[in-house]
Amino acid sequence: MPYDIEIINPVDYCGWDDLLASNPESTFFHTAAWAKVLSETYNYRPLYFTIRDDKGLIALIPMMEVKSIFTGLRGVSLPFTDYCQAIITGRCQLQDMFGFIKEYGRKCNWKFIEIRGGNYPDETAVSFFYGHRLKLTPNSEQIFSRFDDVTKRNIRKAIREGVEVNIHRSIDAVKEFCRLHYITRKKHGLPPQPWSFFEKIYEHIISKSLGFIAVASYGKIKIAGSVFFNFKEKSLYKFGASDFKYQHLRANNLVMWEAIKLCAQNGHQNFCFGRTEPDNTGLRRFKCGWGTEEQIINYYKYDLQQNAFVTEAPLVKNSHRRIFGSMPIPLLKIFGSLLYKHMG
124 phi and psi, to 5 degrees? Predict the structure, then answer.
C-alpha cells in the first residue's frame, strides 16, 4: 500500500470534521459528534482507520471496539448506525485497508469484524436492508410534486385535521420525544435505547445545531416526533415515534414533510430516510412514497477465527417481542439500559 494507515480517535482529534469535509463521500455517521455519542454512552473505544495527505481525507474505515459478555470482543463499523460505508479514494484499495484491520483485530483478540454498508466484491452479505434517499431542491412545490398520491393525501389530511409541527432544539423536546419513543418501542415489543443515549445526542448533536427534533401537536397533545441529523449538504432521518391513538391523523407524514422543507430551505441537497428491514413492507412503502431512490445496504461479518466472511445470519426468534410488549414502560427502560451496550 502506498499510504500509511493511522488509527485516529475522532473524539480527541481536533478538526476531525474539517478533515471529513474534504471528502464528498463522508456522512454524518463518520463525524466526531456521532463518535462521542456512542463512546460516551456505551464506553466503546473509537478506532478510525484513516489515510490522509496534505489535501485531506483519502480513505477511512471507522470502527469501534465493543466488549460484551454475550457477544465477545469485536470491531463494529459502527454500532447503532444505519450505514457507515468505507471511504476509499485515490490509489487506496479496500482489501488493503480491510487486511490491516483484520491483523489489528487478531492482535486484540477480536472474534468478529462487522461492517455496515458499502460493497465488498465477491463476498456474501450476512444481511441487508433498504435505504431511501430523496434529492432536495429549494423549490418545495417541486419536491412535493414527486410524492405519490397517498403521501400527498396524508399530508393534506394532517393539515386539515389541525395537526401542527414545530422544530425544536431543546432538552425538553428530547424528553418529549423519548416519552413517545417509549410508547412506540413497547408497541413493537422492543426495549428503548437508554435515556443517556438521547442525552448525549442532545449534548453533542442537537445543542450544536447538527440536528433537530420535529414534534407534531394536536391541540395541546404531543402526538408524534422525529429526530434528524445534518452534515454538510446531507440530512438524515434517524428516529421516529408516535402515539398510536392518533395514527389516523397522519401526523408522521406532516412531521416528515416539515423536516424535508426545512432541510431544503437550509441548502441541503440530499435527505436520507435511514434503513428499513426487508420484511417491514409497510415502512418500505411509506418511504418509497416520497419520491425516493431505493438502494440496498449490505451488512458484512468477518469471523477472525475462521478467517472468512459469515454467509448466513443466525435465526432470530420473535418470541421476545411478545414478552417485551407485555412489560410496563419503566421495566422496559431498565432492560434497555442493561442490554443495548451488548447489542452494538
Answer: -90, 130
Cell 469501534, residue located: 64
Place of cell 418470541: 319
- The count of residues in the chain is 344
Q: What is the pLDDT of residues 196-241, one digit of tens each?
A: 999 999 999 999 999 999 999 999 999 999 999 999 999 999 999 9
Q: Annotate 210-248 with b (16+ C-beta within 10 A) or e (fewer).
A: bbbbbbbbbeeebbbbbbbbbbbebbbbbbbbbbeebee
Closest C-alpha to 34, from 67, 77, 74: 77
Q: How far apart are CA 251 and CA 169, in angstroms?
A: 19
Q: What Cα–Cα distance (Å) separates residue 73 from each residue in 53, 159, 215, 311? A: 32, 50, 39, 20
Better-predicted residue by pLDDT, 328 or 281? 281
Q: Alpha-carbon distance 309 to 114, whole Å?
A: 10
If DSSP codes are grouped into helix, strand and coil, which group holds residue 299? strand
pLDDT in tens, 253-276: 999 999 999 999 999 999 999 999
Q: Phi and psi at residue 62, in whole multiples of 5°? A: -80, 135
pLDDT in tens, 5-23: 999 999 999 999 999 999 9
Q: Is the sign of the CA dihedral 212, 297, 51, 54 positive or negative?
A: negative
Are 181 and 241 contacting, i.e. CB atoms less than 8 angstroms apart?
A: yes
Q: By the 8 A CB rule, do 130 and 297 touch? A: yes
Which letter does DSSP use for residue 28 in this model?
A: G
CA distance 183 to 192: 9
Whether this model's pTM surpasses 0.90: yes
